[in-house]
């Protein structure tokens, strides 16, 4: 046990029996975890020198940040259509949503695109389409990605990018869940 843990144990008045002071705590039932033993094991593991994991230099890492609601604009996604899989993303969104998100994103009107029910899926799909472009132009950025984050709808895009959520789940999330 480390000196710090031992001092803390003594300061709280816990003896080696696992009971504090003179109280009459019953012994724990068989099969329960002995915290003192876990602490001893953890301390012993700390004292054994371990081989340091190879760290990447900051220039060899990337972090992707996905935008949220409010970043939508008519015409968004137009420059992404020439990259592999982008049209597939919009086709999948159409199947899930039941309307042509690509048409709305490209041609508007802006008032319709600004509605929460439309702008969140539009930002979500456009974000993942941008990842497709990045993967095509700079695959090392995707391969060296150590984190992905986003706000509001961007959080769902980050989860899909990380593989923690399916595209169909992220594109079908109701607007209330984005807020």
CATH H-level superfamily of the largest domain = Malonyl-Coenzyme A Acyl Carrier Protein, domain 2
Q: What's the total helix number?
A: 10
| CATH overall fold name of the largest domain | Malonyl-Coenzyme A Acyl Carrier Protein, domain 2
In whole angstroms, how far apart are the ends? Answer: 47 Å
Helix content: 40-55%
Strand order of the largest sheet: 1-2
CATH architecture of the largest domain: 3-Layer(aba) Sandwich
State which percent range the strand residues make up. Answer: 5-15%
Q: Which overall shape is indicated by the principal axes computed on the Cα atoms?
A: elongated
Radius of gyration: 26 Å
> What would CATH call the class of the largest domain?
Alpha Beta
Report the count of strand segments.
Answer: 2
Low-confidence stretches: 1-23
Structural class based on helices, strands and sheet pairing: mainly alpha
Q: Major beta sheet, specifics?
A: 2 strands, parallel
Total domain modules: 2
Mean pLDDT: 79
Helix-strand string? HHEHHHHHEHHH
Question: Explain this structure to me?
Answer:
Helices cover 51% and strands 6% of the residues. It has helices spanning 3-11, 35-47, 86-97, 101-107, 110-114, 116-137, 139-143, 153-162, 167-171, 175-178; strands at 62-66, 145-150. It starts with a helix and ends with a helix. The protein is mostly helical. Residues 1-23 have low confidence and may be disordered. A two-stranded parallel ribbon has the order 1-2.
């Amino acid at each position: 046990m480390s000196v710090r843990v031992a001092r803390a144990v003594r300061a709280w008045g816990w003896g080696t029996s696992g009971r504090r002071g003179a109280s009459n705590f019953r012994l724990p039932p068989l099969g329960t975890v002995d915290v003192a033993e876990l602490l001893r094991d953890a301390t012993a593991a700390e004292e054994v020198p371990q081989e340091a994991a190879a760290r990447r230099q900051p220039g060899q890492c990337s972090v992707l940040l996905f935008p949220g609601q409010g970043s939508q604009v008519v015409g968004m996604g137009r420059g992404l259509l020439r990259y592999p899989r982008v049209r597939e993303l919009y086709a999948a969104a159409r199947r899930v949503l039941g309307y042509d998100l690509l048409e709305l994103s490209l041609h508007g009107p802006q008032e319709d695109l600004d509605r929460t029910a439309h702008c969140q899926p539009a930002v979500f799909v456009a974000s993942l389409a941008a990842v497709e472009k990045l993967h095509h132009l700079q695959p090392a950025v995707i391969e060296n990605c150590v984190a992905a984050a986003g706000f509001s709808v961007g959080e769902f895009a980050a989860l899909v990018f990380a593989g923690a959520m399916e595209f169909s789940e992220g594109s079908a999330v109701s607007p209330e869940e984005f807020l």
